[in-house]
Design goal:
There is one protein chain. The chain is globular and about 50 Å long. Helix 1 packs antiparallel against helix 3, helix 1 packs parallel to helix 4 and helix 2 runs parallel beside helix 3. The chain has a 5-stranded mixed sheet. It is α+β, with helices and mostly antiparallel strands. Helix content is 47%, strand content 11%. It folds into 2 domains: 128 residues, Four Helix Bundle (Hemerythrin (Met), subunit A) (Up-down Bundle); 96 residues, 2-Layer Sandwich (Nonspecific Lipid-transfer Protein, Chain A). The longest helix is centred in the middle third of the chain and has 23 residues. The two termini are 26 Å apart.
């Protein structure tokens, strides 16, 4: 099954839902350490997201895909209030622009607000997981969003210019990522610090299998191999887990 991207409004809806979950998780727990972001507490996580939204707001408002525009420094104050302000302004700007408006992004490909809505939905989803890991039970990522999140992660890792960050020449073999609750799979390999992948199952040195939500968390380094079904060479799966977040 080919993974189908969400509509523009679907990404914005997912973004809103996860922002609500972050606010709920963070309320009264701003000092809780975030285990998946060493050195951060929930307050720092909220400030990080607020700053991310502020930087992207400037790109949406500039409507200039040719270069990155500088954003003003994030103000001081309650981290959740800053997060609410910056996310509200960005969501309003995205809704006003629609999905085809020009907008710079660092990949050099698909320089539109549609690309940005997708990127922000997934970054927010993963940081919602971070907030919930810090404060209580983690709710699953909705299946269609999670499947798209796996695909987006692989696309980003394979993007031109990203290979310098991989810091490894190979995984030691091919890895198959297999979804247990949908007909979706990917085969991944790293060759000379470049990641390549193809949709569908295929021969692999190791296979990691789990529900879409779990696979999404795994590929973004938010879930360990012990929570998934692993067949084959564990060192290949562990090597994938060492790729940059």
């Amino acid at each position: 099954m080919a993974v189908v991207r969400l509509p523009f409004g679907g990404y914005l809806g997912a973004l809103r839902a996860d922002l609500t979950r972050i606010a709920t998780a963070a309320a009264g727990r701003l000092d809780a350490p975030v285990p998946t972001c060493p050195g951060w507490d929930v307050a720092e996580l909220a400030r990080h997201l607020a700053a991310v939204y502020g930087r992207w707001l400037v790109q949406v408002e500039a409507a200039d895909p040719s270069r990155r525009h500088e954003a003003p420094a994030l103000g001081v104050g309650d981290p959740l209030a800053l997060l609410e302000e910056q996310s509200g302004r960005l969501l309003a700007a995205l809704e006003a622009a629609g999905e085809e408006a020009p907008c710079w992004n660092w990949t050099g490909e698909e320089p539109t607000t549609g690309w940005l809505a997708r990127r922000l939905a997934h970054e927010t989803s993963i940081h919602r997981v971070d907030a919930e890991l810090a404060t209580g039970p983690v709710s699953p990522i909705e299946r269609s969003l999670a499947l798209d999140g796996v695909a987006e992660r692989l696309e980003l890792l394979a993007a031109p210019g990203y290979g310098d960050r991989l810091a490894r020449d190979s995984l030691g073999g091919r890895l198959c990522l297999q979804c247990a609750d949908a007909e979706a799979a990917w085969v991944v390999e790293v060759d000379r610090r470049r990641l390549r992948f193809s949709a569908g199952s295929g021969p692999a040195a190791a296979t990691v299998r789990g529900p879409a939500s779990a696979l999404d968390r795994f590929v973004w380094n938010r879930l360990g191999l012990e929570a998934l079904e692993l067949r084959g060479d564990p060192s290949v799966a562990a090597a994938f887990s060492s790729l940059p977040g």
